[in-house]
Design a protein that fits this description.
By secondary structure, the protein is an alpha/beta fold. It has 2 domains: 6-177, 3-Layer(aba) Sandwich (Rossmann fold), CATH 3.40.50; 185-373, 3-Layer(aba) Sandwich (Rossmann fold), CATH 3.40.50. The chain contains 19 helices and 13 strands. The strands form 2 sheets. It has a 7-stranded parallel beta sheet. Strands 10-9-8-11-12-13 form a 6-stranded parallel beta sheet, sandwiched between helices. Helix 4 packs across helix 5 (115-122). The radius of gyration is 29 Å and the shape is globular. The protein starts with 5 loop residues before the first strand and ends with a helix. Residues 398-430 have low confidence and may be disordered. Residues 198-369 form the Glycosyl transferase family domain.
């Protein structure tokens, strides 16, 4: 539809070989917004995210924008450092691009993506700030909170945990909740039995063996792989038929290698499958019997746990942050364990392995509950309400300028013989759709002119470089010719 308003969504990452939970969440969000808006996705580089976005018909713009990681772990000099980032070349290019495009509003994703919000605000462009993580709680947290508050019109959080850093007045006036969901096509429900059989054969899992899984896009200490390995040692001692699968790209290689060595030292090599990056996650989830999420940080939500439950798998997790919210909603609070309680993890997993019928029933019931609470239908109902509100709040045409009322002059104030100035005629306001169309054409025209100027500048530089190169070659040839004449 040509009358849809243009909006820009900013992703802080675009990984080349894998796609993180945050990227999947933003891509799904962008796809679901597309019926309501013309969406442009801005990413720092080409990667899995941008390729999938283009395949979905979403416009992609590549732009390197500095990230402010201090927003996640606040410190005293945070605002001063942000001012330095604002003086960067990348920030100037960002501001110029937004000034030409003039989107109806922008959505910046994660707390560390500060510069798009500040640039848009400085141009009078509304900002929806999407928070998917839990900002570190320390004495400087109010600095991050205040920066987000000042530079946003709305704060969109994925969980109550992600909203917990904001004071009550901000939560009441500005914070809205949109929990994540999934694309039903990616779940491949009809193929579960086939996927399970094929993947287990590839992994050489025998019919009587049980597979316990661990998944993380990037494996580092905070994701708790070492806790998973220590749990596996305890579980394998009681359930020798248990097998363990680790999926994820090593983020901290020394930590990852330490976990692999621990498996070897414990004599569990035959029990473990270290997969690395997994292209087909549906097949991996289908192959599992139990999923364990031993995250050591307060997850903003926990997409791995949600995906596991959506695939009908029982999930055992540490009780913190968004993971607690998900498992409570799924009716699986009994399978939450206090953080760092490795014995507790082993006990819960062992109980599920000992009772496969119970594990299957728990997984099936949990799937029904998460579909009702977080499934695509529930997500679309929530998003439709937000999209309609954003359209009314940010995308309606501004009122046409009205003529200023006549000002009565005091006696003698008007020059003799000078005719009275006629009041400017009032323009009749355009219908909303026509106004949006006109604004869209103006934005597209400005963008085309900016691109044309950029192409002309690049051509001019190329011509100048060619002329300089040619002149240099001529001078070199002349010098060589002169040397030959002197030698003769």
């Amino acid at each position: 539809m040509t009358d849809k308003a243009t909006i820009v969504l900013f992703s802080h990452v675009s990984n080349v070989r894998s796609i993180t939970g945050a990227e999947k969440l933003l891509l799904f969000f962008c796809r679901e917004l597309s019926p309501y808006f013309n969406c442009i996705l801005v990413a720092p580089q080409d990667g899995k995210l941008t390729r999938k976005a283009r395949l979905s018909g979403i416009d992609v713009h590549l732009m390197s924008i500095p990230l402010v990681y201090g927003m996640y772990t606040p410190y005293a000099g945070l605002e001063a450092d942000i001012r330095k980032f604002q003086d960067s070349k990348e920030n100037r290019e960002l501001s110029e691009w937004l000034a030409v495009l003039r989107p109806a509003f922008i959505i910046t994703s994660t707390c560390v993506h500060v510069l798009p919000a500040i640039a848009a605000k400085s141009l009078g462009i509304p900002v929806v700030w999407k928070i998917s993580e839990t900002i570190t709680d320390n004495e400087h947290t109010p600095i991050s909170v205040d920066i987000i508050h000042r530079n946003s019109d709305e704060i969109l959080v994925i969980s109550h945990t992600a909203a917990s850093c904001f004071p009550e007045d901000i939560r009441q006036s500005k914070v809205t909740h949109l929990p994540p969901s999934w694309n039903d096509a990616d779940i491949m429900l009809e193929a579960w039995s086939k996927l399970r059989g094929e993947r287990r054969r590839e992994l050489q899992i025998r019919p009587g063996e049980k597979l316990v899984g661990y998944i993380s896009s990037f494996i580092n200490k905070e994701k708790g792989l070492e806790h998973f390995v220590k749990m596996a040692v305890l579980v394998a001692a009681v359930h020798p038929e248990a097998r363990f699968m680790v999926i994820g790209t090593p983020g901290d290689k020394s930590y990852y290698e330490r976990c692999v060595r621990k498996v070897k030292l414990e004599g569990l090599n035959p029990h473990f499958k270290f997969i690395g990056y997994e292209e087909s996650l549906p097949a991996a989830y289908c192959a599992m019997d139990v999923l364990v999420v031993p995250s050591l940080i307060r997850e903003g939500f926990g997409m791995t746990a949600l995906e596991g439950l959506a695939f009908g798998k029982p999930v055992v997790a540490y009780s913190s942050g968004g993971l607690r919210e998900i498992l409570h909603a799924a009716g699986c609070a009994d399978y939450l364990v206090a953080a760092d309680d490795i014995d507790g993890l082993a006990g819960k997993v062992g109980m599920l392995l000992a009772n496969p019928e119970l594990a299957a029933a728990i997984g099936s019931q949990a799937r029904e509950r998460v579909v009702a609470a977080y499934g695509p239908a529930a997500y679309r109902v929530r998003l439709q309400g937000y999209a309609e509100r954003w359209n009314l709040r940010f995308c309606t045409a501004p009122p046409e300028p009205q003529a200023a009322p006549a000002v009565e002059l005091p006696p003698g104030g008007e020059a003799p013989g000078e005719p009275e100035a006629a009041a400017a005629p009032r323009r009749k306001g355009l219908p909303r759709r026509a106004a949006r169309l006109r604004r869209g054409k103006l934005r597209r025209g400005r963008l085309r002119r900016a691109k044309g100027r950029r192409r002309a500048e690049l051509k001019r530089r190329a011509r100048t470089a060619r002329r300089r190169s040619t002149a240099g070659k001529r001078r070199s040839a002349a010098r060589r010719s002169g040397r030959r004449r002197k030698a003769g």
